[in-house]
Amino acid sequence: MKIKIIALAALTVLLTACNEHKTVEQVTEDLEEKVATEAPLEEEAPILIGEFKRDTLESRAYNKWFIQSYKDHTLDTESLPALKKGLTDVRVTVFMGTWCEDSQREVPAFFKMLDEIDYDSDLIHIVTVSEDKTEPAELVSHKEITNVPTFIFTKDGKELGRVVEYPLESLEKDMVKILSGQEYKHAYAE
Predict the structure, then answer these.
(1) Is residue 10 a part of any domain in this protein?
(2) N or C: which end of the chain has fewer CB within 10 A?
(3) What is the per-residue DSSP string for 29-89?
(4) Whole-model pTM above 0.85?
(5) What total number of domains does the chain contain?
(6) pLDDT (tens digit, 9 = 90+) per residue, 57-95?
(7) Where is the Thioredoxin domain (predicted)?
C-alpha cells in the first residue's frame, strides 16, 4: 500500500512539473544552456527545406541565431492580451528560410510572443523553403510566397491575412490587426 502511495505521489509531481508553464526568461535560460553545453559545429548549418517543428530551429545548427533574436526582441506587452484572444481557433503557417536574415529575426520573435501568452507552439505549421521559394513545391504552390518570412493566419479554412517579410508597425500590432479583422495590408500588398 505504501509503495502505491509513493508511486502515485511521484507520478503526480512528475505530471505537474511537465505541465508547468515556462516563462520567457526560463525558455531563454534553457536555450542558452543548450548552446553552452553543445560543441560548436565544424561547418555552416544546412539549409532546411520542408516541414519542421520549433525544436529543429532550436537545435545546435540553428540555435545561435534563434537564441540571439529571441533575446533581442522586445515584446509589445500592450498587444499581448488581444493577441492571445485573437489566436483562439486560428491556425498559423510560417513560411521561412533558414538562410534568410529576416526569418532569423522575425521567427524567434514570433515564438517569444507565443511563449509569453502561453500558446502551444506545436500548433504552428513551419515550412522552410528554398532561396527561390519554389521548394518544397507541394507546400508552396498556390500560396503566393514571394518573400520570407510569411506568417499566414487562417480560421475555418479562410485566410485572415498575412505578415510578409517584416511587420509594418510591430509583429504584435500587425498580428492584432489581422486577428481582429482591422484593415491590414502587408508590405508587398498592392
Answers:
(1) no
(2) C
(3) HHHHHHHHHSPPPSSPPPPP-EEE-HHHHTSTTTHHHHHHHHHHPPP-TTTHHHHHHHTTT
(4) no
(5) 1
(6) 999 889 889 999 999 999 999 999 999 999 999 999 999
(7) 33-184
Between CA 152 and CA 155, with CA 87 as vertex, the angle to 5 degrees is 55
Q: Is residue 138 part of a domain?
A: yes
The full length of the chain comes to: 190
Residue 17 lies in a domain: no
CA distances from 87 to 84, 153, 160, 172 (A): 5, 9, 11, 12
- CATH number for the domain that contains residue 69: 3.40.30.10
**Residue 167 belongs to a domain:** yes
Q: Rounded to whole angstroms, how far apart are CA atoms 57 and 27?
A: 14
Q: Is the pLDDT of residue 177 over 70?
A: yes
